[in-house]
């Protein structure tokens, strides 16, 4: 007979699939269990849980979707007696607003302790302050949310590095986590850690099928939600949201990259393991099949010229490996690619004026554009500080253009610190 305790043990060990259990077997196996479960919610510097602020916001808006928001012991860990740990913790955490809508791994004491062994930092050490409600991201709180996301313990250093990035004031998480735009953090991993952890950089790198990509990305979003207080409908006002809010993480395919990887451009040595995070607003597919080098780059430029903002300091271009190889054979470097695209992503002023100036969407646009009188003058769209070029994905010529939230001024990164031994 398969008992409830053995089922949980198998689940927590990361088995690929649980055995089917008929209802009558489940009933026979049901035994009350007593567990300690950690609290994932953020605490502000004055000692108040962010849930207290969220509860007031829910009351003002008449939002009743998570009726147990703020209803929990004001402790880091609580005791639960139940016949089904998985079901009860998922029910309770959902009603408190601590899940993303998908089932979570219950953050029981043993799993959190195992997670904490994968860092040399103390559990009470503060990694950063997470907006919008300024929850303190302690190592323990991040570990709890990583457990809930399904992370293996060895993924924790990557999650910690990503939390450091979004806690950086220059990342502008306050705006990203409260805007009506569909922005969400996207994690980019470079260096040896990607291979060691099996973070996918090849086929379907931003899709399903890899636990490292899925759970690391999910953990960061749970941190922003539970520690930072980014609650949909209360503080997060995204009009439609986007699927990337569940998980958005990939590694750069450095093996197939004919140029230098991103972290070297950012000033790190080649053998460093680095996490970069950008606020991805959406995904534009670039179909490179049948185009030569200039044709492909013109296609990218045309996509950029049709974006809805006059200025985007950062845009990410993920070039498929076959297209990258073709460009490299033709002598294109990253800088040559950027220069060509900057020079060709343009609109005639007559169209530019109707789209941006007449609609007053010219924040950050240089004065010379506003003062222009030549209807045929070609105006850059968008004005960019940096076009981030990555190589990722499997074989094929399907690239991707990802506009980054307009408030982001630069790419922010952190080196991954793995524990001694």
Globally, the shape reads globular
Percentage of β-strand residues = 15-25%
- Regions with pLDDT < 50 over 5+ consecutive residues? 1-27
Q: How many structural domains?
A: 3
Rounded mean pLDDT score? 91
How is the largest sheet built, in terms of strand order?
Answer: 6-5-7-14
Structural class, by secondary structure, is: alpha+beta
- Major sheet description: 4 strands, mixed
Counting H and I runs of at least 4 residues, what is the number of helices? 16
Q: How many DSSP-defined strands?
A: 14
Distance between the termini: 40 Å
The SSE order reads: HHEHEHHEEHHHEHHEHEEHEHHEHHEEEE
Radius of gyration: 23 Å
Descriptive report:
The structure is a single chain. By secondary structure, the chain is α+β, with helices and mostly antiparallel strands. 35% of the residues lie in helices and 17% in strands. It folds into 3 domains: 1-30, no CATH class; 32-280, no CATH class; 287-403, no CATH class. The chain is built from 16 helices and 14 strands. The strands form 5 sheets. The chain has a 4-stranded mixed sheet with strand order 6-5-7-14. Strands 8-13-9-12 form a 4-stranded mixed sheet. The protein has a two-stranded antiparallel ribbon with strand order 1-2.
């Amino acid at each position: 007979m398969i008992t409830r305790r053995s089922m949980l043990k198998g689940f927590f060990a990361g088995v690929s699939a649980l055995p089917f259990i008929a209802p009558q077997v489940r009933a026979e196996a049901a035994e009350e269990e007593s567990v300690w479960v950690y609290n994932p919610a953020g605490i502000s510097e004055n000692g108040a849980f962010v849930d207290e602020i969220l509860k007031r916001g829910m009351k003002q808006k008449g939002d009743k979707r998570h009726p147990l928001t703020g209803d929990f012991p004001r402790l880091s860990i609580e005791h639960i007696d139940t016949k089904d740990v998985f079901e009860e913790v998922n029910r309770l955490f959902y009603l408190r607003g601590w899940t993303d809508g998908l089932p979570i791994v219950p953050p029981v004491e043993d799993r959190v302790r195992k997670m904490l062994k994968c860092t040399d930092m103390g559990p009470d050490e503060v990694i950063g302050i997470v907006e919008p409600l300024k929850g303190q991201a302690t190592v323990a709180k991040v570990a709890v949310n990583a457990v809930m996301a399904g992370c293996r313990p060895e993924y924790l250093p990557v999650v910690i590095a990503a939390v450091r990035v979004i806690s950086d004031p220059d990342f502008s998480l306050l705006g990203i986590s409260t805007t009506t735009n569909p922005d969400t953090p996207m994690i980019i991993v470079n260096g040896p850690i990607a291979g060691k952890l099996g973070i996918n950089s090849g086929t379907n790198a931003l899709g399903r099928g890899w636990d490292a990509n899925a759970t690391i990305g999910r953990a960061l979003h749970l941190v922003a939600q539970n520690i930072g207080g980014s609650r949909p409908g209360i503080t997060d006002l995204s009009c439609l949201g986007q699927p990337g809010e569940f998980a958005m993480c990939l590694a750069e395919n450095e093996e197939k990259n004919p140029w230098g990887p991103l972290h070297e451009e950012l000033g790190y040595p080649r053998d460093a393991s680095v996490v970069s995070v950008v606020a991805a607003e959406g995904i534009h597919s670039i179909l490179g099949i049948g185009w030569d080098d200039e044709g492909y780059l013109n296609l990218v430029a045309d996509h950029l010229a049709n974006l809805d903002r006059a200025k985007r300091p950062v845009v990410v271009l993920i070039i498929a490996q076959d297209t990258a190889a073709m460009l490299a054979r033709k002598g294109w470097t990253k800088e040559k690619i950027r220069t060509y695209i900057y020079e060709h992503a343009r609109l005639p002023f007559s169209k530019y004026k109707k789209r941006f100036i007449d609609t007053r969407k010219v924040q950050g646009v240089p004065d010379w554009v506003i003062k222009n009188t030549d209807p045929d003058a070609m105006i850059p769209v968008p004005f960019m500080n940096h076009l981030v070029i990555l190589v990722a994905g499997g074989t094929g010529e399907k690239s991707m253009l990802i506009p980054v939230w307009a408030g982001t001024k630069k790419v922010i990164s952190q080196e991954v610190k793995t524990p001694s031994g």
